[in-house]
Amino acid sequence: MNERIIIAVDIDYFFAQCEEVRRPEIQGKPVVICVYSGRTELSGVVSTSNYVARALGVESGIPISAAKRRLSNTDAVFLSVDQEYYKLVSDRIMGAVHSFSEYFEQVSIDEAFLDVTNATHRDYESAIEIGRKIKDQIKDLEKLTCSVGIARNKLLAKMAADSQKPDGLSVLHPDEISVFLDPLPIGKLPGVGPKTEKRMKELGIETISTLAHFDPGILADEFGRNLGPQLARLAQGLDDEPVREREPEQFSRIVTLKRDATSFNFENELRSMTGDISRRLRSSNSKCKVVGIIVITTNLKTKHRARTLDVSIDSEQEIFAVTSELFKSYFESENSKTQARRVGIRVSNLVSSERQESVSNLSEFF
DNA sequence: AATACCGGCGAGT
DNA sequence: TCATACTCGCCGGTATT
């Protein structure tokens, strides 16, 4: 029997709720957590906001200036993101959540899955008890509310959690899946974002039920050989992804430049980014085989350039050498029409520092 | 023909 | 007008073997 019971935990409006706890005086007011880019006084975007602000149309991703406009007649509180603090809170919470099952997967700073198949002996009532305990613990520990979803796989557990927010606990029994899924608009399906939603509507697909029964061949043609049929499977509530802890597969760092660049004139910024990435590689005991750069142009197009190395590296000097070369050649090949607004670096194909350079080059060796 | 690599794009927090 | 900082994954084209 393969039937599992999965619990999804999602902390409600995490950054903003952290601030509400840390500064009780702002509770009840619109709270907006901002990423200031430093270009001008107000440039930047809203990272997240509390429900008071969302009700007034201030949500993730909108410009700070737009948020200020919308909240101009309120006692709204605008705060700068404090990642370090949220990470501390997150680590404490995730540690507590982990203790409910050895099968644990953290998927972001504020989301995690647990496989409680064994712990519950496949009993949903028992899973609900665990869900309640998790909510109580997070409340006791950090005074934060979260939303919990319980279902037979990660996809459905997440969708269940999403369906009752904030402070929800939603159980999706296996025999209720169709009733739950079928009427939902396709945009509610994880993996279907704004672009995919638009294209699906052009195909006449509006609900998850329609997608679930749609011709897989047409979906393959439209969305790709693998992705198309996969979307249909998701729409049927099918998902075999195991709950497992995963190591990060890449690190990246990106900054917004004070002034748009048409040449590599941001050595200080690059030094800071390479230093940062090097420290992260070393503290995770890994080296990288691929080093790349990221450029976001003034018209907000993202460009990538990358180089696969013969030998994996982790030092700031080496990463700086490769990325500065990539930036130089990038700007040489660009017709200086498109300027760089944001620049960043990325390392991937990570290998553990201890045992690398192992047998892969044996044939060359002999 | 299979695999590796590269760069674009999309989604999600 | 405004438009962050990440991580992960898929796609198609091209290069390599």
Account of the protein in words:
- This protein has 366 residues and is of the alpha+beta class.
- 40% of the residues lie in helices and 25% in strands.
- The chain contains 15 helices and 12 strands.
- A 5-stranded mixed sheet has the order 5-6-1-7-8. Strands 9-12-10-11 form a 4-stranded antiparallel sheet, with helices on one face.
- The radius of gyration is 23 Å and the shape is globular.
- It binds a DNA duplex (13 and 17 nucleotides) through strand 2, strand 3, helix 3, helix 9 and strand 9.
Q: Find the structural class using helix and strand composition.
A: alpha+beta
Number of helices: 15
Unreliable residue runs: 357-366
Share of β-strand residues: 15-25%
Shape: globular
Which sequence of strands runs across the widest sheet? 5-6-1-7-8
Distance between the termini: 50 Å
Strands, count = 12
Question: What would the average pLDDT be, to the nearest integer?
Answer: 95
Tell me the radius of gyration: 23 Å
SSE string, helices as H and strands as E: EHEEHHEHEEHHEHEHHHHHEHEEHEH
